[in-house]
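User: quick one, sequence for these tokens?
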């Protein structure tokens, strides 16, 4: 692995990241010392302390990691099983170390000998403080133990089924069956319950219920069965979850802010129970996957992305799913009595911008200016604009639909070169769909071509867009106006306008066809046969999701190309048998990109997330495709490796941040970017 992460991880013993530590903080109003365990899958007996560092202590010499993280509270020292020699460790990887299993402030608990504990916001007291306050009000008819036990029984951060420790101290005797079990047995129990479900949507409901009752088991199960559960918690099933969101009696946890909260958003953010958020995933639900405007039901996406982050090793307590409610233009939802959002048409303009501005300020105000702001499933009218607006404000931010999709697409194209045996500079790529995903991919591909020595004008001349009107070329009918974001790809001398995709393929003669327009079945037999007419191994990516929106299926691609297609999709298709050969198509999942980008950004202390960092992520991902993967037709690694992929991509991103000059001084100390020769 590159030294980009080694610089931060070397001083500390590494244990594998597990579920959110079962930690306890004391509220300032009810100070008390509480013994608790910082439990993880791999280190169940670890115990550490959280002590306030004296003002006179030198941050260069104190034992442990000094944590200030842009917060107003005094720095804290994590002592116990962690040592660090200099404060630069935090600057380099204050967050990522814990994501990789290093003990950090997220796993700190109040312990014996701690004089005082840092206070959580008064509006969101931790469970023990809440219990203490409740106990002081208890009557003889309501013994304190019943209040404590009930609270612990219903706290997913505490309850762990029959594996819940310290039952007597937690007043849980009699509230849990007398039998005892290990955490592994609780995971097996959860897996059995999942196996009893008949459909992916039933499994989704079961998993959300588990997350709301027993976080330890939920995240352990997610780690154990990542490849199996990602298609349930994320695409394609999350699309159905958004469509059925109003029928969910248990919804995935997240923060909801609406226009009615303008002027009071910080109070809402203070209600969130986690005290160390590093990544906030925001959506306004206007363009959910290929399903369009789902309003507040889009929380399924923010929560799903957060679950992907957790599956890749990022501590759940670092993640904040946020749903911005500015109304919906979905007429069906506005009349649906089960809809959980405000029943008003979308409000745009100044009020919308004010709500977003206040939401980001509130998140940064509580959790620090270095909190990553991840934008998800905004409509094109706001996606590019919001990204640029908050970049200009200095936020550490990216839009996964634009930049994450771009990186995973370019990674697939780079990996396919090992199959087609053609250089990147020889590629002609036709993007079907000219929305934020494909424009982002087109721009990143141009950057990759320029990095490889191709003149930018030449690079752009070999990248084509096909929008809802047809081929994007100068001179097309005046009523088919070309927007500013498409214009850089419109100069195509000698190429005539056509509204037929099949005719465009014949005219452009692309080496690769990439679909991301949510128009199902547009890659027809004629289109794919045309791709084969001038390509021994045509590259065909049907990236739209969910499955119902795919441009073609894997079976169609292989059968119509007579097994020649290098196929990948944005939804996971089962292996396909064709004339004695078995193809296992690649899954072009953004989950291979955005967790690593977040890790690398946090690791490097990056002041911004640049296009070069996303290209580094793409090159790194392409380098992880094995010959065995290519032999069965896959140009992406299997999803079972997604946790390891995030770490490798994160190293590449951190190194790129250092090269770009946006990393914190000394955070990375150099490091080669994997995949770059």
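Assistant:
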């Amino acid at each position: 692995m590159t030294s980009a992460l080694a610089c931060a991880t070397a001083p500390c013993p590494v244990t594998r990241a597990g579920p959110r530590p079962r930690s306890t903080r004391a509220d300032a109003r009810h100070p008390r010392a509480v013994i608790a365990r910082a439990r993880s899958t791999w280190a169940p007996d670890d115990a550490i302390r959280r002590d306030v560092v004296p003002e006179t202590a030198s941050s260069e010499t104190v034992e442990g990691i000094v944590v200030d993280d842009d917060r107003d509270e005094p720095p804290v020292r994590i002592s116990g099983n962690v040592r660090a020699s200099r404060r630069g460790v935090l600057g380099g990887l204050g967050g990522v170390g814990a994501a990789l299993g290093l003990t950090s402030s997220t796993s700190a608990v109040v312990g014996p000998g701690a004089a005082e504990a840092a206070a959580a916001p008064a509006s969101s007291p931790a469970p023990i403080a809440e219990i203490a306050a409740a106990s002081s009000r208890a009557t003889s008819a309501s013994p304190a133990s019943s209040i404590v036990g009930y609270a612990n029984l219903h706290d997913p951060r505490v309850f762990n089924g029959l594996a819940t420790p310290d039952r007597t101290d937690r007043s849980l005797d009699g509230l849990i069956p007398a039998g005892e079990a290990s955490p592994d047995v609780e995971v097996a129990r959860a897996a059995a319950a999942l196996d009893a479900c008949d459909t992916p949507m039933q499994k989704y409901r079961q998993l959300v219920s588990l997350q709301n009752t027993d976080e330890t088991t939920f995240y352990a199960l997610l780690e154990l069965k990542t490849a199996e559960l990602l298609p349930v918690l994320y695409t394609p099933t999350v699309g159905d979850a958004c469509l059925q969101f109003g029928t969910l009696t248990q919804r995935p946890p997240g923060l909801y802010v609406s226009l009615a909260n303008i002027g009071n958003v910080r109070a809402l953010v203070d209600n969130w129970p986690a005290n160390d958020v590093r990544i906030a995933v925001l959506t306004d639900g206007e363009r959910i996957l290929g399903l369009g405007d789902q309003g507040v039901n889009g929380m399924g996406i923010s929560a799903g992305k957060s679950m992907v982050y957790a599956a890749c090793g990022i501590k759940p307590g670092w993640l904040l799913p946020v749903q911005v409610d500015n109304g919906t233009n979905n007429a069906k939802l506005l009349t649906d009595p089960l809809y959980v959002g405000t029943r008003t048409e979308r409000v745009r303009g100044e009020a919308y911008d004010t709500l977003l501005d206040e939401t980001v300020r509130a998140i940064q105000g509580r959790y620090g200016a270095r909190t990553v702001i991840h934008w998800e499933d905004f409509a094109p009218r706001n996606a590019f604009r919001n990204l640029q607006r908050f970049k200009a404000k200095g936020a550490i931010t990216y839009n996964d639909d634009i930049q994450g999709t771009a990186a995973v697409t370019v990674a697939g194209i780079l990996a396919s070169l090992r199959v087609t045996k053609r250089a990147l500079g020889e590629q002609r790529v036709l993007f079907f769909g000219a929305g934020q995903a494909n424009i982002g991919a087109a721009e990143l591909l141009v950057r990759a071509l320029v990095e490889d020595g191709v003149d930018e004008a030449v690079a752009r001349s070999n990248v084509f867009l096909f929008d809802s009107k047809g081929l994007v070329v100068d001179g097309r009918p005046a009523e088919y106006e070309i927007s500013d974001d498409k214009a850089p790809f419109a100069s195509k001398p000698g190429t005539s306008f056509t509204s037929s995709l099949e005719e465009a393929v014949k005219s452009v003669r692309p080496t690769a066809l990439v679909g991301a327009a949510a128009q199902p079945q547009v890659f027809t037999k004629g289109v794919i046969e045309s791709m084969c007419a001038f390509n021994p191994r045509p590259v065909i990516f049907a990236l739209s999701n969910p499955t119902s929106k795919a441009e073609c299926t894997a079976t169609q691609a292989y059968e119509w190309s007579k097994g020649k297609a290098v196929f990948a999709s944005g939804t996971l298709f089962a292996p396909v048998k064709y004339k004695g050969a078995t193809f296992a198509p690649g899954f072009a999942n953004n989950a291979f990109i955005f967790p690593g980008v977040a890790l690398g950004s946090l690791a490097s202390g990056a002041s911004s997330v640049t296009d070069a960092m996303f290209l580094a992520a793409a090159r790194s991902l392409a380098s992880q495709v094995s010959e065995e993967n290519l032999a069965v037709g896959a140009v992406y690694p299997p999803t079972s490796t997604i946790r390891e992929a995030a770490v490798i991509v994160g190293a590449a991103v951190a190194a790129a941040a250092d090269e770009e000059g946006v990393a914190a001084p000394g955070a990375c100390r150099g490091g080669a970017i994997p995949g770059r020769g």
